[in-house]
Amino acid sequence: MIHILRGCDEAVRLVREAVAEHVYCVSVEMLCVFRKIGEAILPTTAHPMQHDQLRRVFGPWLVTTDEIPDPATLSIETRLNGAVMQKASISDLVFDVPQLIAYCSTFTILNPGDVIITGTTGGVGAFRNPQVWLRAGDTIEVDISGVGVLSNPIAAEPSD
After folding, report:
1. For residues 5 and 1, what is the distance between their CA atoms, to the nearest angstrom?
2. Cα separation of 123 and 130, whole Å?
3. Count of domains in the chain?
4. What is the pTM of this model?
5. What is the CA radius of gyration of the chain?
């Protein structure tokens, strides 16, 4: 889940209770870092990222906070080819959304249009037994209730 800050003054050292007045909307985000090993396409966190291996997308909608007054009531589900891989409530986050945004404002100045991404839930393919990796032809979807479904096909890289 992402949060985009509204057009207001810079926000620095926000208190948790003041966060809502600075958030404009929420959306769905998917970050993919790929390394190709054999035929598997591996999302990677163990190696330094290179720009050409990083893909970040969000959408399909920007939903304003007046439509979702409490993001903790939302749920998130990730599906690979229709099979549920991750499913959780936003209320299951270790730190709630206002606390995360307030924390970010302690180490950086938040400006209108900034994007804050909350992270993922359990069920990541690398930590499954057996491991699950993306392959060309797969479709990955991230669905946040009340926000929308972000769907992306996985394609093989073109040959040089």
Report:
1. 13
2. 12
3. 1
4. 0.78
5. 17
